[in-house]
Amino acid sequence: MSEKLRIDIVSDVVCPWCAIGYKRLEKAITELGFEDKVSIEWQPFELNPGMPPEGQDLTEHIAEKYGSTLEQQQASQQNMTEIGEELGFKFDYFEGMRMANTFDAHVLLEYAKDFGKQTQLKLRLMNSFFNERQDVSDRAVLKQALLDVGLNADEALAKLDNEEARYEVRNKQGQWKNMGVNSVPTIVFNMKSAVTGAQPVDTFKQVLTDLVG
């Protein structure tokens, strides 16, 4: 195959399984030596499109949305923390942690795509949220993330007040939902086949081997 395998990852920056899913996919790509045979593009999905600007206490949010008890949440978070450690990704869950609105983050990820920095910014934002206790809806936090990956922060932040840029993200979200994507991560290969959830590394290896050859 001369053309690169296109991989679209539909995800949110505050989705723990999206972080785990990507790190497993990355591991599969690296172990197969396919780094030069694939191209990754991140697609917007808000787990909580109605999240208010001030966010919501995470424990309260998960209880409301999924009906999980505190004990269930703690067990799940411990499990994710252990999986993250194996993959080199740190989850730092803490009392008082808040879920954040992520729409602005998605606008900036669209901006970053034009400069080949989308994956770097995505991981930077995930790290900000999950292991640096940062509010990824805060413009100061977003600005620092942009600077950290070498993007023009002022130019990027101007997109947040640009109606066309905001519409583009809303439109893309709608397109993926219309294609049946209603949970994340959803990882789409060449717009033809997809897997959902944080699949094991071996599963990703099998898919990649079948498609890249």
- List how many beta strands DSSP finds: 6
Q: H/E element string?
A: EHEEHHEHHHHHEEH
**Order of neighbouring strands in the sheet with most strands:** 2-1-5-6
N/C terminus separation: 7 Å
Helix content: 40-55%
Q: Provide the residue-averaged pLDDT.
A: 97
CATH superfamily: Glutaredoxin
Beta-strand residue percentage = 5-15%
Which blocks of ≥5 consecutive residues have pLDDT under 50?
Answer: none
Largest sheet: 4 strands, mixed
- The total tally of domains equals 1
What is the C-alpha radius of gyration, as a whole number of Å? 17 Å
Keywords:
Glutaredoxin; 53% helix; 213 residues; alpha+beta; globular; single chain
What does this structure look like?
The protein is of the alpha+beta class. It has a single domain (5-212), classed as Glutaredoxin (3-Layer(aba) Sandwich). Helices cover 53% and strands 12% of the residues. It has nine helices and six strands. The strands form two sheets. A four-stranded mixed β-sheet has the order 2-1-5-6, with helices on both faces. A two-stranded antiparallel ribbon has the order 3-4. β1 (5-11), α1 and β2 form a beta-alpha-beta unit. α4 crosses α8. The model has no long low-confidence stretch (mean pLDDT 97).
Short description:
With 213 residues, the chain is of the alpha+beta class.
